[in-house]
Write a structure and sequence with these properties.
This protein is α/β, with parallel strands linked by helices and 461 residues long. The chain contains 20 helices and 8 strands. It has helices spanning 2-9, 34-47, 50-54, 56-67, 69-78, 80-84, 90-102, 125-144, 168-178, 189-198, 209-231, 246-260, 281-295, 309-319, 329-350, 363-376, 394-403, 416-429, 431-435, 438-455, and strands at 106-110, 156-160, 234-238, 270-275, 299-304, 354-359, 384-389, 407-412. Strands 1-2-3-4-5-6-7-8 form an 8-stranded parallel barrel, surrounded by 8 helices. The longest helix has 23 residues, at 209-231. It starts with a helix and ends in a 6-residue tail after the last helix. 44% of the residues are buried.
Length: 461
């Protein structure tokens, strides 16, 4: 890590005299040890094997029966857990963060709790309240992480998943009503924000007594997380989920924005996630950005390609409805490019009142973002940052970090029992990303062979 820090100290940002494209050729792997690279290559190759991802939970159970919990756990910690998870204790998380900071990278903590939309409710309000406590602890941990050395414009960020705090069934019911005639006044962001602030029982006519009680409890939980995050100077990035509940999630984000994204609060404290693989994303993103501008609210966006492609298409076929996703990866990339251009334009217009995370593992998307930032005069320590998953896309993350861009790694943490099911779910949702990581595997192989054949550690550029 000392070597990495020295290498970073010698790196300069993009030249002010002209645009210099970044090169994601694996040269930045000199900042990582041989053991780290070997583990990354092994794990990424295993994750690109569909049967392992599809049957991950069954294979984990089989491994525990065959090898015993201790040996099975040790193997997981040395491989998948070690690659994608920061650790279990606060001290382990801090150690992981210090290693990232030595590489010019920043943490985006994620609590590995969720509920599938088609699963039975866990244990009622107690389960959601336990999730609330976990998220409040995550806020505190995010704030108390080591301060980055030599990094400017640093923000404390964390991810939250709405369906850990409110029932997907309720979200589905709300989503079905959001655009219906007569529902707008009952479900306005302003009314929900008022209910959050007051804590008084909200009554929505089309919900029964139990649903109204759960809605008010959910609003209270969201308010408590946002209030605590604001007090601790941590910005909340709300995950997008499935299209049939996303309208409800956007409504809840809008309610939080009314309360916490006013200019006097210091910029957007609650951000929403937009999935470029959906057909309506560009239009919806533009509409939401303009609405925030008209309302005088700050606007925060995490822009992703999307992770639920297989299930979205399966649900559409089952229900006989139109597929909400774009037809192929190329169309999704065009959509991402258009959404990126739209948001960079808004950043240029609104400055610190508009923040963007370019959450992408795609090299061309990252190049487009860095080039347009230079052309539009957006500073490296300004309101645009980048995001990738911990343990993936390091050949891109490291180059961005060395060049002075703000780069965040999405970091789950927790025990094996908590995190492994979460990782398997994320792997199932991101199979296309995992299978598309072939270039990273090639670059890892090349670097390992170079070292094996006597090349040693590559000198920094």
């Amino acid at each position: 890590m000392l070597q990495a820090s020295r290498a970073l100290s010698s790196q300069a940002g993009p030249s002010a005299g002209g645009w210099q494209p970044l090169h994601f050729d694996g040269a930045a792997f000199h900042l990582k040890g041989t053991g780290e690279l070997a583990r990354a290559l092994l794990v990424l190759r295993l994750c690109a094997w569909p049967p392992l991802v599809t049957h991950g939970l069954a294979l984990q159970a089989w491994s525990q029966r065959l090898l015993g919990s201790r040996l099975s756990g040790a193997l997981l910690r040395a491989s998948f857990y070690g690659q994608f998870v920061a650790g279990e204790t606060a001290e382990e998380v801090r150690g992981c963060v210090r290693q990232l900071q030595a590489l010019g990278l920043r943490p985006l903590l994620a609590v590995p709790i969720e509920e599938e939309p088609d699963s039975a409710e866990k244990t009622g309000e107690d389960w959601y309240e336990a999730n609330l406590r976990a998220m409040l602890r995550c806020v505190d941990l995010s704030r108390d992480l080591p301060e980055p050395l030599g990094l400017t414009g640093s923000n404390n960020l964390m991810q939250i998943r709405m369906t850990a705090l409110t029932s997907p069934r309720l979200c589905k019911e709300l989503a079905s009503r959001v655009s219906q005639q007569g529902a707008s006044s009952e479900l306005s962001p302003e009314r929900l924000a008022e209910a959050m602030d007051s804590g008084q029982g909200l009554q929505v006519s089309f919900l029964n007594a139990r649903q109204n009680h759960h809605l008010q409890a959910s609003l209270s939980r969201l308010h408590r997380v946002a209030q605590h995050a604001r007090a601790r100077h941590v910005r909340l990035l709300v995950d997008a989920e499935y299209t049939f509940i996303n309208p409800a999630l956007s409504l809840l984000v809008a309610a939080l924005a009314v309360r916490w994204n006013s200019p006097g609060e210091g910029g957007p404290w609650v951000w929403n996630t937009y999935q470029a693989y959906l057909k309506d994303t560009h239009e919806r993103l533009g509409r939401d950005a303009e609405a925030a501008h008209r309302a005088g609210l700050a606007f925060g966006v995490k822009l992703v390609r999307g992770a639920y492609l297989v299930k979205e298409r399966a649900v559409a076929r089952l229900q006989g409805t139109e597929d909400p996703t774009l037809p192929d990866y190329e169309a999704t990339s065009r959509s991402y490019s258009r959404c990126l251009e739209l948001m960079l334009t808004h950043v240029t217009r609104r400055g610190p009142l508009c923040h963007l995370m370019v959450a992408s593992h795609n090299e061309e998307s990252v190049r487009q973002a860095t080039r347009r930032m230079w052309e539009l005069g957006i500073p490296l320590d300004g309101p645009v940052c980048f995001g990738q998953l911990l343990g993936m896309c390091d050949h891109v993350s490291l180059v961005l970090g060395q060049a002075g861009y703000a780069v965040y790694k999405s970091i789950p943490y927790g025990s094996l029992e908590e995190v492994i099911p979460y990782l398997i779910r994320r792997a199932q949702e991101n199979q296309s990303v995992l299978q598309g990581a072939r270039r990273e595997q090639v670059l890892l192989s090349q670097e390992l062979w170079r070292r094996l054949l006597g090349g040693g550690l590559r000198a920094s550029r």
